[in-house]
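Worked Example 4.2. Consider the chain below.
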Amino acid sequence: MFNEVYLLIGGNIGDRFKLLEQAKRAISKKIGEIKNESSIYETAPWGFKAEQSFLNQVVKISTKLSPQKILKFCFEIEDGLGRERKSNQYESRTMDIDILFYNDEIVNEPGLIIPHPKLHLRRFTLVPLTEIEPGFVHPVFKKTSAVLLENCNDNSKVQKL
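Applying the procedure from the previous section yields the following structure tokens:
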């Protein structure tokens, strides 16, 4: 059985467009087939200050992998694209891959929470998600992506490229 998974990919260090393409190639190879992808958005850093803005994109994947395996591969892909984890604080990075949804399942275990616990607070996540799946219902909040975006208090700039 195939699972529908939504990932947010993005970064603000290096050749941001090239890194997004490399991340998508690696996701296709290691995690599963990309069934849909949002436009690329340029977004302000969230939760910290940085000179360079982020490029972000949401991709919808079809996979047979478990959430734990997907997380493992996300870390491998990030590391392979030069991500350095210096602290537990938000910081600039070459690539960040977040699991937003895994079907409509709720996973809550050490190191892995799905749906992503902050997605409803982040305009840079909700805008691309709503572009490709406005009617997806969040399994915890029981609201669609479009409604979550409408109710989001984050006023950060999210510009479609």
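The chain has one domain: 3-117. Residues 16-30 form the longest helix (15 residues). Compare this with Example 4.1 before moving on.
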